[in-house]
């Protein structure tokens, strides 16, 4: 019987008196302050990384455009050099030099002509 009495005493708990002058119930937020700080720092780090990536892409694009301008300039210089070498070859022909010499009144003296070997 004592065992039965203990079970009933254990099952029946005293009622908690209700306090009529209750304090207002405070609603808790979804996140704690620590979580908010972590989320805010994560977002700030993410935004900083995104800005760094965009800045690096901008620098890369500017460098690429500068390289393309320099390559275009090099191509133009190569074209000019080719045109000038063709012009030198045209102007240095034997017939043209001989015609220019006659025009200036020079005569061919066989005894003063020296042949330079090699070229």
Poorly predicted regions = none
Beta-strand proportion = under 5%
Roughly what is the average pLDDT, rounded to an integer? 85
- Rg on CA atoms, Å: 50 Å
Number of helices: 3
How much helical structure, as a percent, in the residues?
55-70%
> Termini, distance in Å?
134 Å
Number of strands: 0
GO biological process, one term: FtsZ-dependent cytokinesis
Protein name: Cell division protein FtsL
Keywords: Cell cycle, Cell division, Cell membrane, Membrane, Transmembrane, Transmembrane helix
Family: Belongs to the FtsL family.
Describe the structure using short key phrases.
119 residues, rod-shaped
Structure description:
- The protein has 119 residues and is an all-alpha fold.
- It has a domain at 40-104.
- It has helices at 2-11, 33-91, 94-103.
- It starts with a helix and ends in a 16-residue tail after the last helix.
- The mean pLDDT is 85.
- Essential cell division protein.
- One of its GO terms (biological process) is FtsZ-dependent cytokinesis.
- It holds the Pfam family DivIC.
